[in-house]
Amino acid sequence: MASVVPLKEKKLMDVKLTELPSWILMRDFTPSGIAGTFRRGYDRYYNKYINVKKGSIAGVNMVLACYVLFNYCRCYKELKHERRRKYH
């Protein structure tokens, strides 16, 4: 028989779509809670891609891809404005 896990302790991938709003409201949105979330995410990323015996360039490539995507989204308004301009 499967044990019942409280909604607050479920991971995002285990939450059903109908439970999602109440699950989001149960999250810790204090500054220390948000900092802890970022810290856990960094630790998971570091242990999975950087701190390994046979590492590859994949972990660094993901950081660079996120950086490029973030800057593209940040500058999209200016890039969109210049894309229709004729240069002749």
UniProtKB/TrEMBL annotation:
Subunit structure, as described in the record: Component of the ATP synthase complex composed at least of ATP5F1A/subunit alpha, ATP5F1B/subunit beta, ATP5MC1/subunit c (homooctomer), MT-ATP6/subunit a, MT-ATP8/subunit 8, ATP5ME/subunit e, ATP5MF/subunit f, ATP5MG/subunit g, ATP5MK/subunit k, ATP5MJ/subunit j, ATP5F1C/subunit gamma, ATP5F1D/subunit delta, ATP5F1E/subunit epsilon, ATP5PF/subunit F6, ATP5PB/subunit b, ATP5PD/subunit d, ATP5PO/subunit OSCP.
GO MF entry, a single one: proton-transporting ATP synthase activity, rotational mechanism
UniProt name for this protein: ATP synthase F(0) complex subunit f, mitochondrial
UniProt keyword terms in alphabetical order: Acetylation, ATP synthesis, CF(0), Hydrogen ion transport, Ion transport, Membrane, Mitochondrion, Mitochondrion inner membrane, Phosphoprotein, Transmembrane, Transmembrane helix, Transport
Highest taxon, organism lineage: Eukaryota
Gene: Atp5mf
Main localization of the protein described in the UniProt heading: mitochondrion
Protein family according to the UniProt entry: Belongs to the ATPase F chain family.
